[in-house]
Fold this protein.
Amino acid sequence: MNVEDAELRQAISVAESYRQRVEALSRQVQVLRVSLNEVSLASDALKAFKNAKDGDEIMVPIGATSFITVKVTPNRNVVVDIGSDISVEKDVDSAIGYMDANNAEISEALKKTMEALGSSQEALNNLTAAIQNEYDARKQQQVQ
């Protein structure tokens, strides 16, 4: 690298920015994975609900990886949260379609976030290696 002290300090500062970005993107990936899992569980429950006959018992997720057993009635409407603390009643097919759309949207966001995380991690690794090489070169010069 063979750089001036000011350039080295700037490179260290940029590396710290990359490290913070990597941490933020990692947290975002975790949140998106949890959301995707939640939507998948809801979608599976809705499909089981749709395919059940009146009087059948099905397991319904209630959150925190917990389920309850419920008996299916002729009423096949579902209350769906559409955001901003607003819920609407939908028929089961519309609710499944809504969950599928959410799944696709979250999957795409997860894909883009993982790509950004990979790019940021690679940039951080390259910059960190260059900084380490510069430190090693300076240390070697001091020994001579």
